[in-house]
Structure formats: structure tokens, C-alpha cells
Amino acid sequence: MTANALEVTGLTKSFGGNAVLHGVDLSVPKGTVTAVVGASGCGKTTLLRLVAGFETPDSGTISIAGREVASAERFIAAHRRDVGYVAQDGALFPHLTVGQNIAYGLTRNARTSRARVAALLDTVQLGESMAQRRPHELSGGQQQRVALARALAREPALMLLDEPFSALDTGLRASTRAAVAQLLAAAQVTTLLVTHDQEEALSIADQVAVMRDGRFAGVGTPQQVYLNPGNKFTAEFLGDCVLLPGTVTGGVADCVLGRLPVRDEAADGPATLMLRPEQLIATTVTDDGHGTGVGTVLSSEFRGHDVLLVVDPGAGEPITVRQHSLDPPAVDAKVRVDVVGPVVVLDQPS
């Protein structure tokens, strides 16, 4: 069995007596991308710095490509860990050309190899002519690609990306993110990405780890953590969600929207049910119909390709519906709310 590219076990870290990480465990399979996502101050950047070798753990172990690099008995320096690192701002040397920046990551004998630099520029989809430019002559997206090429130069066992797209504007961030994701997948480079951007984590990663107060609240594929988060914090952090009280009986939940199938096995009894707004479809009814799933549109927010409707179901809290923006129900209209797919049981009071 091939060892995971990164194995973190029982990792703890404190600063000035304040605990930042509490026994963190994380496995990153070889050739995959794992995104650690969380709010500012949750500990995700500390985790990345520990893996990089910029900080020493209080306890626990870190192994890269099967080699233990940090534990109570051992600490391998950052430059000997076989990792590539791309910071938020790229951190290019302003006094060096693009080619010299990339060559800086090569061994002494390879630094004069124009072919190697050209190949790396091609890898990150930049032309060879870029080699003579200075960093200030590049766009933000181009600078990030050069930083990635420099990190790839030494063919690291693990790539670390620290909020690499957050300094870019919205359109450039999306295109650069897509390009980098393609590059990493094509090169089969194992990557650990730290970000506060939920959309970024869900779109670029094979595995998403949601961090809260120095612990992982949920770890799984993007589909798993988004559609079946398991707890309220993960559900709410990864996007809009609709939480409804209900009662589960035999795999079916009774709630204000009717009788709905439950995604996984759940014990019978009271429960908190979760749906994503895109699971709901509001359709105008022609009469004053009452009953399960019928409500009134309180507000409508046009967002271009979709619209957010806030609907009063007649009992309990208003619910949010996200659907396409073509001819949506009007404010004050009576609507029937239909549900696509099963609901998730987040917790059940004892």
C-alpha cells in the first residue's frame, strides 16, 4: 500500500499559553488536493506552518512521503522536508527576473538550464518570453503562476498553498484557481491548500477539512461535507442551509414541508433537519391553497443566474429558496415549496 503523502497525527500547538491546535489528525493521499477551510484564527495557517517546518509542534507527529519530519523526538528543518510553498502574495524576488526566480528553486548545476525554466513556464501556461520580465511587469495571476513554477522546480513531495488566490480580484481569482487546479491535477502533485473561501475549497479539492477552534469539524469529499455535513457548524460554514425541526420515523422525516426521505439511517424521534436552498423549488399556486409545503414569498433577491426567495411557510421560521431567475414567483405570492432529494439529520436530542 502506498503511504499517504502527508500524515498528521495528534498535532497540538500553543502560543503564549493559548492552545491553537487540539490533537489534529489529517491524512492526504498521494496525488490529491486537500483544502483546509475555516474562519480567521481557527488554526488552519498554524497547521500549514507546522507541516512546512516553520513552527515546531508541542506534541503529535507529521510525516511526509512516509518520512517522519516532526515529533517529540525529531524535527527536520523546513529546507529538508521536500515541500514546495506558495504564499498569499507569491513572495517573488523583485530584483530577479521571472526566469531567475524560477531557477532559484533548482540545484546549483541546474540553475543555468534555460530548457528547465522554459519547461516550467510551459507547465504553468506562461510563454518562454516571460522569463526576462520582472515581477512588477506581471499581473497578479501571472505572479502566482510564477511562484507555483518556482515551487514545482524541485519536484516536491508535497505542495503547500497558503491563501494563494485571496489577493486577486474576483474574476482573476476564479480563472487563476481553475488554471492552478488543472496544473496540479496534470502533474499529480499532492497539495495541501489553506483557504477561508468555501467555494474555492469545494471546487479545487479532492478532500475538504473544515476547521473550527483548532479541531476538524468535518472531513470528507466536497460532496460529502456539503451534502451530508453531519453537524450544524459544517453545514452553515460551507454555504446557505435551511434548518427545520422535524420528527423521524422509519427513515422518513415529518416537517413543515411535508414527509421527506432521510439521506442516511437515523434514529426515530425529534431531529434537526438540513436542506440546501437549491433543493427547494417554489411554484406559484393559483388559489389560496393551504396545507403542507404552501407558503408566502416575503422577499426576492435577484442574483443574475439565480434568485433567492424568502418564504414564510406559515409555521416556524422563514425558509430560503435558491432557484433559477427565469420568471420566479413574485413577492406576496402564494407558493408551493417542493423538495428535491433527501434531507440530512444533523442531530437528534436525547
Description:
By secondary structure, this protein is an alpha+beta fold. The chain has 2 domains: 6-232, 3-Layer(aba) Sandwich (Rossmann fold); 240-347, Beta Barrel (OB fold (Dihydrolipoamide Acetyltransferase, E2P)). Helices cover 21% and strands 35% of the residues. The protein is built from 8 helices and 20 strands. The strands form 4 sheets. It has a 6-stranded mixed beta sheet, sandwiched between helices. Strands 13-12-11-14-20 form a 5-stranded antiparallel beta sheet, with no helix packed on it. It is globular. The protein starts with 5 loop residues before the first strand and ends with a strand. The model has no long low-confidence stretch (mean pLDDT 88).
Give me the secondary-structure topology.
Layout: E1 6-15, E2 18-28, E3 33-37, H1 44-52, E4 59-64, E5 67-70, E6 83-86, H2 98-103, H3 114-123, H4 140-152, E7 158-162, H5 170-187, E8 191-195, H6 198-204, E9 207-212, E10 215-220, H7 222-227, H8 232-237, E11 242-249, E12 252-255, E13 258-261, E14 269-275, E15 280-284, E16 294-302, E17 306-312, E18 319-324, E19 334-339, E20 344-347
Parallel strand pairs: 3-8, 3-9, 6-7, 7-8
Antiparallel strand pairs: 1-2, 1-4, 4-5, 9-10, 11-12, 11-14, 12-13, 14-20, 15-19, 16-17, 16-19, 17-18
Helix pairs in contact: 4-5
